[in-house]
TrEMBL record:
The protein's role, per its UniProt record: Plays a key role in steroid hormone synthesis by enhancing the metabolism of cholesterol into pregnenolone. Mediates the transfer of cholesterol from the outer mitochondrial membrane to the inner mitochondrial membrane where it is cleaved to pregnenolone.
Localization of this protein: Mitochondrion
Keywords: Lipid transport, Lipid-binding, Mitochondrion, Steroidogenesis, Transit peptide, Transport
Protein's recorded name: Steroidogenic acute regulatory protein, mitochondrial
SMART domains (UniProt xref): START
Length: 285
């Protein structure tokens, strides 16, 4: 099936087939479906990270160049780069130190990564199926300000294909006004491979959203959230959030570390409350 699909896509390069409406688009979609069909079932953590990285690279290949403008393709590739880098950091289990652990098992780890800086990793188990989390974090992304007090607003500035978006996020000031107003412009992409969903992103430039007066433009990335069913309990989801942020401005490292680790703990608590009180629609994952 996969070989036949590649032949179909290759055929679109011949002159007499270039005007066949939708042919190239259908070919790329068919390849994506075939790759998903071949995904492994219930892989180990290191296996699913490598699996997502390999398949993400395949779908980010030159086949997609026929569907997007140069600028759109650059954003897609930047999102793929963020995913590859973030998953690479998560796959390296060495050097992590515990920042905090909650009574319910939620914990935040951190380590310093060369050329990236200090990153934070949140590990939690949520008593909801994976599709429910995907729905809230991706399909209802712009509603995050309704339930997460650390976020004032998220807007999707541009949608590219079905999996890549450019967003503007306005963060709320931290408690005690330790960290003033920050905003972020990011490219985000979402991928599902087998039983795993990955949401990744990093800072980008978007001409239509210049820096705002009185707000410091901070930068994300590479960052990602990895969702997969808890082993033995498919109705629960293991969520791992890799957070990498440059808050800009002058801030003591002790304050940055305190704010970022607490932000992750708070996020988990607010997400649980949202999932318990908000009705679910048909989930994608």
């Amino acid at each position: 099936m996969l070989l036949a699909t590649f032949k179909l896509c290759a055929g679109s390069s011949y002159r007499h087939m270039r005007n066949v409406k939708g042919l190239r688009h259908q070919a790329v979609l068919a390849i994506g479906r075939e790759l998903n069909r071949r995904a492994l079932g219930d892989p180990t953590p290191s296996a699913w990270i490598n699996q997502v990285r390999r398949r993400s690279s395949l779908l980010g290949s030159g086949l997609e160049e026929i569907l997007y403008s140069d600028q759109e393709l650059a954003y897609i590739r930047q999102g793929e780069e963020a995913m590859q880098k973030a998953l690479g950091i998560l796959s390296n289990q060495e050097g992590w130190k515990q920042e905090t652990q909650q009574a319910n098992g939620d914990r935040v780890l951190s380590k310093v990564v060369p050329d990236v800086g200090k990153v934070f990793q949140l590990e939690v188990v949520v008593d909801q199926p994976m599709g429910r989390l995907y729905e809230e974090l991706v399909e209802r992304m712009e509603a995050m300000g309704e339930w997460n007090p650390n976020v004032k607003e998220i807007k999707v500035l541009k949608k590219i294909g079905k999996d890549t978006v450019i967003t503007h996020e306005l963060a709320a000031e931290s408690a005690g006004n330790l960290v003033g107003p920050r905003d972020f412009v990011s490219v985000r992409c979402a991928r599902r491979r087998g039983s795993t969903c990955v949401l990744a992103g990093m800072a980008t430039h978007f001409a239509e959203m210049p820096e705002q007066k009185g707000v410091i433009r901070a930068e994300h990335g590479p960052t990602c959230m990895v969702l997969h069913p808890l082993a033995g309990s498919p109705s629960k989801t293991k969520l791992t959030w890799l957070l990498s942020i440059d808050l800009k401005g002058w801030l003591p490292k002790t304050i940055i570390n305190q704010v970022l680790s607490q932000t992750q703990v708070d996020f988990a608590n607010h997400l649980r409350k949202r999932l318990e009180t908000s009705p679910a629609s048909e989930a994608r994952c």
